[in-house]
Amino acid sequence: MGDYRIAWAVFWPFAAAVISYIIGKYDKAWRNHFASAAMVMEFTWLLFLYPHGSTAEFTWAGFCEGGIYLKADGFRWLYGMIAAFMWMMTTLFSEEYFRHYRNRNRYYFFMLMTCAATIGVFLSSNLFTTFLFFEIMSMTSFVMVIHEETKMAKKAAGTYLAIAVIGGLSALFGLFMIYAKIGTLDMGQIGMLADKIGRGPLFYTAGILILVGFGAKAGMYPLHVWLPNAHPVAPAPASALLSGILTKAGMFGVLVISSTMFFHDVQWGRMILVLGTITMVLGAVLAVFTMDLKRTLACSSMSQIGFILVGVGMQGLLGEHNALAVRGTLLHMVNHSLIKLVLFMAAGCIYMNLHKLNLNDIRGYGRGKPFLTAVFAMGTLGIMGIPLWNGYVSKTLLHESIVEYIAMAGERGWNTAPYHVLEWLFLTAGGLTVAYMTKLFIAIFIEKPAGGQECGREKAAYINMESRIALGLSAALLPALGMLPGLTMDRIADLGQGFMGGISPEHQVAYFSAVNLKGAVISMVIGSIVYIVVIRGMLMERAEDGTMIYVERWPARLDLEETVYRPVVLRFLPFWGAFFARVVNALCEGGLTIILKRKERMRTVRPKEDTGFFEGTQAVKILTWCGLPWNTAS
């Protein structure tokens, strides 16, 4: 079976979910303490699971025919650790956040179940195992989205579930095709066998189907529609997990197929690059136009997933020279997870005190709250990519991978114009990030509330000590990682880059050189212009009392879910499905009538040859294929 320590890391949260539910039936306070203690145990267990570079493996070959195959090596262990850390912090924060909520027992149960499934995804070494835990994660996290049971929550959860089910079926079909083609779903063998057999149209079709399944969970365009709606309606701790870690479970699947089945595949890399660029820019544009705090952060998550997908695409284009792209992809995944943990918990602190998220309603809330201001500022500066914060390091690597490809393409005489456009779209998306995060920070911590009431200076405590610890420790990581990238970020990259077939760059990256700082400066300039011209000039207007308020300018007809997906799924497909079913049914019934009449006539003419004749007719074969009962003796 292998090393049972890795099995414990996956199955302990499943057991903790059941135990916490039982405890919660008798004592809710002890349930909360147990859930927090269980996640501290999980994080500690994973911390010592991979202490000296050794690899732990576990196999349960007979489970569900396909088996369970787990491995804790560099990248897998790293993301298992990040998942456990995020669950530990959000569980600590949940105790205060859910103080006045109902159905808390249900929330803790499904939250811990989702934790187990997510860690199972990250520690999987076989695509069937990945799919198994991925589907469990999708179903259990659905309950976290619908927790508040409001009309908006039910609608968003319905979309989330539909995307999860459709994406899961798509991925399953792709896995069937791959298994039929090469006879295995082991991640260590898929790439080798793909090179040996060759990547034909069937192989690419299977890859696209798998990409749809995992990309949907990641929030990749055009399957992103669940993300901007699910995060605002879910409780803030759940939003932090949805944005920070569940989207990375989707990215894990994308990385697996890109780094094994399509390793150094230029055509695959181009496709991922196009999808990533659209996701990156569109998410940032949506965030600029949004006036809801959590929805802005959700759209931001979509944009940052786009940055990561750009890195995956550049890996395919750069081939053996993809060191910067690999390290940038890995580090931006890590950075985004940690940044969104901070930002969504900070948003949760605001919501649990005001029960509002509209910027016009929460503006000025952070005035006079130095702790909340500092925490939110750490997340803001990190995601903006400001030098000395962690987001700057990963964005610099991703940007340099684009520059490196432009130089390589120029040396070989290839057309570099599309990639110059890509570079400016990358910097512009970074600028839009600066703009929408500036909008949030100024609205919450600098602007005065509408009407002049200082809602941020109430005497009552707005956050307890446990939540302060969870927020403070999480926020402190962001500058700690960014100020000493050579000691922190580079070591993290060294640990996980082998998963994507990456190697260390020939020379250490000079993160704070003038050339690399230039990209960050350009993004900040673009962001400043967008904030002044677009946000202050076009997305705000003067109210009757003379104050400036934020207004919704995004056209409703551009909502992809409402204008395309819902009409197609709820009206178009049912109508045409029923229509074709009626046509087929009518044809089958008509064919059956003709055959029965012919059979009766043949009985009269040649009764002895009846059975043999009708068993050989094409009509009988058609009826059998349609699933209609047929008995020649009837």
Outline of the structure:
This protein has helices at 4-24, 28-47, 74-97, 104-122, 127-145, 151-182, 187-197, 201-218, 227-233, 236-259, 266-289, 293-318, 323-354, 359-362, 370-384, 390-411, 417-445, 465-483, 489-496, 514-538, 560-605, 610-615, 618-625; strands at residues 56-60, 68-72, 540-542, 548-550. It is mainly α.
- Tell me the structural class: mainly alpha
Distance between the termini: 56 Å
Strand content: under 5%
How big is the Rg? 27 Å
Low-pLDDT segments: 608-616
Summarize the biggest pleated sheet: 2 strands, antiparallel
Spatial shape: globular
Number of domains: 2
Total E-strand runs: 4
Helix content: over 70%
Task: Give, in order, the helices and strands.
Answer: HHEEHHHHHHHHHHHHHHHHHHEEHHH
Helix count, per DSSP?
A: 23
Integer average pLDDT: 84
Strand order of the largest sheet: 1-2
Q: How would you describe the overall organization of this protein?
A:
- By secondary structure, the protein is mostly helical.
- The protein has 2 domains: 4-554, no CATH class; 563-625.
- The chain is built from 23 helices and 4 strands.
- Strands 1-2 form a two-stranded antiparallel ribbon. It has a two-stranded antiparallel sheet with strand order 3-4.
- α6 (151-182) packs antiparallel against α8.
- The radius of gyration is 27 Å and the shape is globular.
